[in-house]
């Protein structure tokens, strides 16, 4: 492997390691109440102090649209659209990222079994475990995967706008979980880091896949679906066929039954040329 790709692969693997360690540290902090988790009660109290009816309505809307179920539906719809357009690799990438993230955060919740904030602080009903935040994990993975899928098709301005919007959305979803009193601060941080780690793993695998043509060429591609048009460049199959046809025509007899090329050879021998 050339030094360039090898270096990029090493950086990607290193990034996965750093994110994984950070996610593990935050999960441990949330479980033990150490590190960032020591600020959990204070952060929760700060969010309770700024509650208003209008903010509560907005928070409920954002947290519903950014829920794990809504993110799964968004990913499924995007997969259908990508499949219809022939982007099979993108479908596999997005589906694997979404399903894997869902399985991962559910497994971690069951493993750590952390209690949510007191019921008196909650503005919406939640019944499962607290650590990590599924909303934070799924919103980052699904939205991030969609950004990855569309990245190469966008210009610089579009990339900046989409990346900014995606980041603000993920932050907003996480903030609503604190505002609504259903998660601790460390739950949300851990959810973001778990999601970032998993998304990076998926992107790394996607980048190392062999380049295979997964789209079928339609009429616009110059031939029936599933077939590759004949190449016309020098040395290609179509060019070789044309050369064979020219040779056959040149070797064909004329109206007198003679081969022009052979007659020229006889003339050359007879005149001593």
Structure explained in plain terms:
The chain is built from ten helices and no strands. It is an all-alpha fold. It has two domains: 15-208, no CATH class; 230-271, no CATH class. The longest helix has 30 residues, at 3-32. The radius of gyration is 31 Å and the shape is globular.
CA radius of gyration: 31 Å
| Biggest sheet layout | none
Estimated share of beta-strand residues = under 5%
Order of helices and strands: HHHHHHHHHH
The best one-word shape is globular
Report the structural category.
mainly alpha
Question: Mean of residue pLDDT?
Answer: 82
**How many DSSP H or I helices?**
10
Q: Could you name the ranges where pLDDT drops below 50 across 5 or more consecutive residues?
A: 212-246, 262-273
Q: How many runs of DSSP E, i.e. beta strands?
A: 0
Distance between the termini: 58 Å
What is the structure about, briefly put?
By secondary structure, this protein is an all-alpha fold. Helix content is 68%, strand content 0%.
Fold blueprint:
Elements: H1 3-32, H2 40-49, H3 53-65, H4 68-84, H5 88-112, H6 134-150, H7 156-179, H8 185-208, H9 237-251, H10 260-271
Helix pairs in contact: 1-8, 3-7, 4-5, 4-6, 5-6, 5-8, 6-7, 6-8, 7-8
Q: Main attributes?
A:
single chain, 273 residues, mainly alpha, 10 helices, 68% helix, globular, disordered C terminus
């Amino acid at each position: 492997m050339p030094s360039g790709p090898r270096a990029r692969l090493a950086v990607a693997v290193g990034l996965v390691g750093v994110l994984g360690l950070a996610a593990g540290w935050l999960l441990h902090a949330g479980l033990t109440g150490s590190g960032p988790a020591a600020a959990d009660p204070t952060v929760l109290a700060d969010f309770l102090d700024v509650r208003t009816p209008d903010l509560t309505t907005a928070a409920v809307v954002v947290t519903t649209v950014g829920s794990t179920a809504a993110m799964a539906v968004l990913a499924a719809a995007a997969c259908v659209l990508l499949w219809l357009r022939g982007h099979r690799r993108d479908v596999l990438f997005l589906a694997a990222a979404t399903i894997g993230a869902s399985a991962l955060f559910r497994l971690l919740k069951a493993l750590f079994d952390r209690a949510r904030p007191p019921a008196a602080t909650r503005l919406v009903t939640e019944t499962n475990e607290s650590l990590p935040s599924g909303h934070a994990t799924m919103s980052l993975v699904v939205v991030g995967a969609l950004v990855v899928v569309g990245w190469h098709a966008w210009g610089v301005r579009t990339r900046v706008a989409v990346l900014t919007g995606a980041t603000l959305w993920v932050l907003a979803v996480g903030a609503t979980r604190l505002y609504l009193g259903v998660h601790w601060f460390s739950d949300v941080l851990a959810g973001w880091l778990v999601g970032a780690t998993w998304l990076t793993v998926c992107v790394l695998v996607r980048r190392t896949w062999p380049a295979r043509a997964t789209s079928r060429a339609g009429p616009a591609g110059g031939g029936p679906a599933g077939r590759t048009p004949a190449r016309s460049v020098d040395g290609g199959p179509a060019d070789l066929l044309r050369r064979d046809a020219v040779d056959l025509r040149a070797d064909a007899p004329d109206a007198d039954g003679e081969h022009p090329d052979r007659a020229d050879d006889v003339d050359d021998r007879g005149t001593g040329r």
